[in-house]
Every structure is written in structure tokens, then in C-alpha cells.
Amino acid sequence: MLAIGEFSRLTHLSVRTLRRYHDADLLVPATVDPATGYRYYSAEQIPTAQVIHRLRELDVPLTEVRSILRTPDPGARAALVADHLRRLEAELDRTRAAVTSLRRLLAPEPAPVEVELRSVPGSTVAAVEADVDLDDVLAWYAGAMAELDAAVEEPTGPPGGLYDNALFEVGHGHALVHRPTSRPPTRGRVHPVRLPSVELAVATHVGGHEDIEVTYGEVGAWVVANALAVAGPVRETYLVGPRDTADPSQWRTEIGWPVFRVAEPLHGAPGLAPAASVSED
């Protein structure tokens, strides 16, 4: 038998932590001296203690650690751990995205975004569309784009998306992804959609999408200073993306913001008028 101090040195769990795990019925000593209350552990408990140590390093809650340890099936135990790892990876992705955005926002001399005005003619495309939650849009996009790739045999340009304002404002709205093609098929969720002509203020976001909202903000600021934004979905065009290269630094995403075009220019942007008369409906 190992005294609690010896067991602590062997497992790198403090005596205080071992006592807490005992009180929580997580790691019960092999025996407790009824006269002194001293706790003693067996050598066979070392692997269990090490598993607990690693799980706690991964911030697995004590209740989940207990469930994992008490699950007799190895496959079920592995599934419980995998679920927690997926949650940790999602949190890590959110942390990385926030860090990337903050670094760009706090750069001493951020590179100004280049915005151009573009008249986009109407076109018929192969599309998948649905009302989705903002939290689910990435998973929905992946599935929809996979269907488009399978259905469209001869695309005539890069894929794109249209995203209603409500998706960003209230977290739920209409989303549409599309592939341009001369012969849009009807297959499963894929069907032809006519995209109307539109005047866009366009900027290209360079790199991964962790900080794409910063580019959105820069385009929006430019639009406020130079144009009247119209009601309508924001457009994205995926010039280079994960389907083309695994290197996020090579990705290029065009962001198109709908604008009014008028006769007088402002701030060097031909044909735009100030947004002073814009009102919210």
C-alpha cells in the first residue's frame, strides 16, 4: 500500500487534490485507517489517477470525469472523451479567431482596404438556399456546397453566397450558396435561381475567415462614407478557398455590399452620394 504522500509523488496529484477526489467519490483510496483516518492507495490505482489528471488538464468537469471512469465499455469511454475534445477544439477556434481579429484591429498602421464599385448583371445560377441559424451556417454551407459540386458539371465561375441582413442582426435568416453555370440543374436541393443585377461596393478579404468581420467593418465604413446602402443580401464570392488550397493565407473572398448609384461622386468614388439621408425602416 502507498501512503497518500507517496501516491501524490507518483501521480503528480497534490495531497489536497487527492483528498478532494476522495470526497467527490472520484478516486477512493484502497483503504482508510479507521483509527487515524490515513488514506492508502494501491499501485493499481496509479493509471486511474493519471487518467483523471489528464482529463482535468483538459478541463473536463468532475461530473464528466466520473462518468468516463464508470463507463465499462472502452468505446463508450472514448466517445465521451472525443465529445469533450470537439468542444475544446471549437473553443480553441473561437479563441484563435478573436486573437487574429484583435491583432489586425490593434495594428499600429493597418493596411487600408481597397474598395471598388462594380455593376453586376443579373444571372441564373445553380443554388441551394434555406433559412438557417448563424451558429449553423458553416455546417450548412459545407453540405450545400457539396451538393452543388456534385450537381454542377460545368461551372462557369467561382462559387458565391448571398446572406440576408437578418442572419447577422438576429442570428437567423436566409442564406443562399450558388455555382454559376450555363445549364443550372434541378437535383435534390439544387435548383436554378435568378440573381438580380446589383451595384456593389466590393473588397477582397485576404486569408482565412477568422477575421473576415474586420473586412466587413471596413467595407461598411466605406459605404457609410460614400454611398447609400440598399436593402438586400450581402454577397460573397469565393475566388480561392479551402476547395482550392489547404493554405488559408492563399484564400481570397470578395465581399460585395449593395449600394445606390447616383450622379455626383463623393470622396473619389464616382457616381455615389452621401448617406446623410439614410433612415432605418
Question: Notable features of this structure?
Answer:
Multidrug-efflux Transporter 1 Regulator Bmrr, Chain A; disordered C terminus; 281 residues; alpha+beta; 11 strands; Multidrug-efflux Transporter Regulator, Chain: A, Domain 2; 2 domains; elongated; 8 helices
What does this protein look like?
The chain has 281 residues and is α+β, with helices and mostly antiparallel strands. The chain folds into 2 domains: 69 residues, Orthogonal Bundle (Multidrug-efflux Transporter Regulator, Chain: A, Domain 2); 143 residues, Multidrug-efflux Transporter 1 Regulator Bmrr, Chain A, CATH 3.20.80. It contains 8 helices and 11 strands. Strands 4-9-11-10-6-7-5-8 form an 8-stranded antiparallel beta sheet. The protein is elongated and about 90 Å long. The C terminus is likely disordered.
Low-confidence stretches: 268-281
**Rounded radius of gyration (Å):** 28 Å
How many H/I helices?
8
* Number of structural units classed as domains: 2
Describe the main β-sheet briefly. Answer: 8 strands, antiparallel
Shape: elongated
Helices and strands, in N-to-C order?
EHHEEHHHEEHEHEEEHEE
The N- and C-terminal alpha carbons lie at a distance of 76 Å
Topology-level CATH name of the largest domain: Multidrug-efflux Transporter 1 Regulator Bmrr, Chain A
What structural class is derived from the secondary structure elements?
alpha+beta
| Number of E-state strands | 11
Strands in their spatial order, largest beta sheet: 4-9-11-10-6-7-5-8
CATH class of the largest domain: Alpha Beta
